[in-house]
DNA sequence: TCAAGATGATCAG
DNA sequence: TGATCCTCTTGAT
C-alpha cells in the first residue's frame, strides 16, 4: 500500500474526517497510550504529507507523526466505532467518523522543531508543489550507485517506493542498474515529470496505473490484473511474464534488499554507459 | 495450521 | 549485508 500517494490521500482524508474539531483519541493496543491521551480533546488544525511521512498539527502544539512502513494501514468508518479488531495502535474518533491505525513503523508526537528536522532530511517529493527536482539531480549526477537504488533513497527524493521505481524506470526505458552519474539530465527531467503525473493520478484514484492506453487489458485483450489493489503495470511483480511491449520475459533481482523488476529488452538504455565518461558520449545498446 | 511475503526503514558489524 | 520490527493475507502443507 504505502507509497507517497497513499500518504497524501491520508492527509486529505484525515483532515476531512477530523479537521477543525476536537478529536477523541486512544490506543486500544496500548503502545501509543501516552501520546493518544495527550491528543485526546485537542483540535486537529491541519494535516500534511511529505514523501511517505504523515504529519498532523494539533491545537496543543503537538505534531502527530506517522510512518506506515511496509505494512501499516489506516481504516476509516462511520461513528459509532465498533470494538477494535486486531492491533489498533491509534484510534481517532468524533461524532461522525473514526479511523484506526495498525502496523505503522512510526507513531509518535513531535515538537515543531522536531518536525522541521524530519523535513530537512527528506529529498523533494514529486507530489508537493514546493519540490525542487534539482536537489535530487545534484545527488543522482554525482553517485555511482544504481539509479534503481537512488530512486528509493528518501534523502534523494521522497515518496517513491518499489512500484513507482519499477514503473518509472520502465517508462524511461532505463535499466535499473544504470549508475546515477551515467543518467543524463534530460532523462532525469523526463522521469521527474513522469513521476509527478503518475503519482498525482495515484492520489486521485488510490491506484497505481502506469500503462499507456494501447497497453491496457482492453486494448491488448488480456485479463486485468486482479491480485492486489494496484492497477495495471508494466513490470512490477510481473517477473516470469511477458513484457506488454516486446514480449520478453520480465526479470527480477534483489537490490539493496528490495525486489527489482525490469524488462531486459525495453530497458537496455544506460547500462553500458561508462562511469565518469562524458554523458553525451554514453553509448546506447 | 503455519510459514512466507509485502508498495519500508533502521541498526549492528 | 543481515537481522529486526510492525500486521495481515496468501498459499502451501
Describe this structure in words.
The chain is of the alpha+beta class. Helix content is 27%, strand content 18%. It has eight helices and ten strands. The protein has helices at 4-18, 33-39, 112-120, 133-140, 147-150, 162-171, 185-205, 217-220, and strands at 24-26, 44-50, 53-58, 63-67, 73-78, 90-93, 97-102, 106-110, 251-255, 258-262. It has a four-stranded antiparallel β-sheet, covered by helices on one side. Strands 2-3-4-8 form a four-stranded antiparallel β-sheet, with helices on both faces. Strand 6 and strand 7 form a beta hairpin. Helix 1 (4-18) runs parallel beside helix 7 (185-205) and helix 6 crosses helix 7 (185-205). The longest helix is centred in the last third of the chain and has 21 residues, at 185-205. The structure holds a DNA duplex (13 and 13 nucleotides).
Structural class: alpha+beta
Q: What is the 3D shape?
A: globular
| SS elements, strand count | 10
Number of separate helices = 8
Strand content: 15-25%
Amino- and carboxy-terminal Cα gap: 35 Å
Radius of gyration: 21 Å
Biggest sheet layout: 4 strands, antiparallel
Order of helices and strands: HEHEEEEEEEHHHHHHEE
Spatial arrangement of strands, main beta sheet:
1-6-7-5
Q: How would you state the average pLDDT, rounded?
A: 93
Q: Tell me the helix content.
A: 25-40%
Q: Regions with pLDDT < 50 over 5+ consecutive residues?
A: 276-285
Amino acid at each position: 500500500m504505502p507509497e507517497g500517494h497513499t500518504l497524501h490521500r491520508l492527509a486529505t482524508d484525515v483532515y476531512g474526517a477530523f479537521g477543525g474539531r476536537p478529536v477523541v483519541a486512544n490506543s486500544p493496543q496500548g503502545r501509543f497510550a501516552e501520546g493518544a491521551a495527550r491528543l485526546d480533546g485537542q483540535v486537529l488544525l491541519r494535516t500534511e504529507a511529505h514523501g511517505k511521512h504523515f504529519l498532523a498539527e494539533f491545537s496543543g502544539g503537538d505534531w502527530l507523526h506517522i510512518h506506515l512502513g511496509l505494512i501499516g494501514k489506516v481504516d476509516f468508518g462511520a461513528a459509532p466505532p465498533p470494538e477494535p479488531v486486531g492491533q489498533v495502535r491509534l484510534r481517532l474518533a468524533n461524532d461522525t467518523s473514526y479511523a484506526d491505525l495498525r502496523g505503522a513503523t512510526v507513531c509518535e508526537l513531535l515538537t515543531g522543531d522536531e518536525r522541521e528536522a524530519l523535513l530537512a532530511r527528506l529529498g523533494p517529493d514529486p507530489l508537493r508543489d514546493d519540490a525542487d527536482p534539482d536537489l535530487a539531480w545534484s545527488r543522482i549526477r554525482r553517485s555511482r550507485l544504481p539509479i534503481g537504488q537512488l530512486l528509493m533513497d528518501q534523502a534523494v527524493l521522497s515518496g517513491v517506493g518499489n512500484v513507482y521505481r519499477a514503473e518509472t524506470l520502465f517508462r524511461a526505458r532505463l535499466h535499473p542498474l544504470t549508475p546515477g552519474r551515467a543518467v543524463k539530465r534530460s532523462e532525469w527531467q523526463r522521469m521527474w515529470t513522469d513521476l509527478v503525473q503518475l503519482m498525482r493520478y495515484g492520489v486521485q484514484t488510490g491506484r497505481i496505473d502506469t500503462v499507456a492506453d494501447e497497453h491496457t487489458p482492453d486494448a491488448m485483450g488480456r485479463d486485468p490484473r486482479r491480485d492486489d489493489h494496484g492497477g495495471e503495470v508494466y513490470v512490477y511483480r510481473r517477473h516470469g511474464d511477458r513484457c506488454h511491449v516486446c514480449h520478453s520475459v520480465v526479470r527480477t533481482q534483489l537490490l539493496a534488499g528490495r525486489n527489482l523488476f525490469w524488462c531486459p529488452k525495453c530497458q537496455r538504455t544506460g547500462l553500458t554507459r561508462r562511469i565518469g565518461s562524458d554523458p553525451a558520449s554514453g553509448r546506447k545498446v
